[in-house]
Description:
Blueprint (H helix, E strand, L loop, with lengths): L1 H28 L3 H4 L2 H15 L5 H9 L4 H24 L1
Helix pairs in contact: 1-3, 1-5
Amino acid sequence: xxxxxxxxxxxxxxLIGLYSLIMVFDAIMSWIPFLRDSAVGRLFDxxxxxxxxxxxxxxxxxxxxxxxxxxxxLIGLLLLYFAQxxxxxILFRLFS
Length: 96
């Protein structure tokens, strides 16, 4: 039973780590127009933009328009890591 728990936890950490890495690459590629318009850039946009759109509303959107800084990436990444830690602790309580 513990072995299954560790496999699930490891798979979860790997998926979140991969998604976070894609988020970072997407942010870097957004600064270089020919990379953003490439096939990989469009694929990353399809994977990342639906998640980041959640944070591009309300006060964050107004802040982005007034300063030119898009904080949705930072908020999304921090929330992803927070959710990972929360899920790890919940799974640990369930299986211990």
